[in-house]
């Protein structure tokens, strides 16, 4: 009897972790994330693992190396995101400028992660070259 229960509980717990309605923990981005070596090819793997904040390193590496990253050009980031196989859609929210110093805008990104669609909102800093700040949702 105890052996059967011991086998069933891990199965139930693993099912709960993979369900589409599983809440994904939102962790504040730490400065130590900037020191992690992550390659652009890891982007969708990080999404599938629920490590959304770590994608910020890849995003900022792309923005740092882009010659078109000037004049607050959010379109280059939106287009780059939509080329990723795990991104269903990325939309710039044109009517929202977050009253911060420096100013920020938002991009809504619909990720495909393990068969589910997960919507995340990116805060993007607008100061000369654009920068990923964090996911606020």
Question: Can you characterise this structure?
Answer:
This protein has 137 residues and is an alpha+beta fold. Helices cover 31% and strands 30% of the residues. The protein is built from four helices and four strands. It has helices at 2-18, 43-48, 55-65, 74-82; strands at 87-98, 104-113, 116-127, 129-135. Strands 1-2-3-4 form a four-stranded antiparallel sheet. Strand 1 (87-98) and strand 2 (104-113) form a beta hairpin. Mean pLDDT is 75; it is low at 7-35.
Shape: globular
Number of strands: 4
Strand order of the largest sheet: 1-2-3-4
Quote the distance from N terminus to C terminus: 43 Å
Number of helices: 4
Radius of gyration: 18 Å
Average pLDDT figure: 75
| Poorly predicted sequence stretches spanning 5 or more consecutive residues | 7-35
Strand content range: 25-35%
- SSE-based structural type: alpha+beta
Main sheet record: 4 strands, antiparallel
Helix fraction, binned, reads 25-40%
Element order, helices and strands? HHHHEEEE
């Amino acid at each position: 009897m105890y052996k059967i229960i011991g086998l069933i509980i891990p199965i139930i717990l693993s099912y709960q972790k993979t369900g589409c309605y599983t809440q994904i923990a939102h962790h504040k981005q730490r400065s130590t994330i900037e020191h992690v070596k992550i390659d652009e090819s890891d982007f969708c793997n990080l999404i599938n693992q629920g490590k959304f904040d770590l994608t910020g390193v890849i995003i900022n590496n792309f923005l740092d190396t882009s010659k078109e990253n000037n004049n607050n050009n959010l379109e280059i980031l939106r287009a780059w995101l939509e080329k990723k196989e795990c991104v269903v859609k990325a939309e710039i929210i044109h009517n929202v400028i977050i009253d911060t110093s420096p100013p920020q805008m938002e991009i809504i990104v619909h990720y495909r992660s393990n068969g589910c669609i997960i919507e995340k909102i990116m805060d993007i800093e607008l100061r000369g070259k654009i920068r990923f700040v964090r996911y606020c949702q």
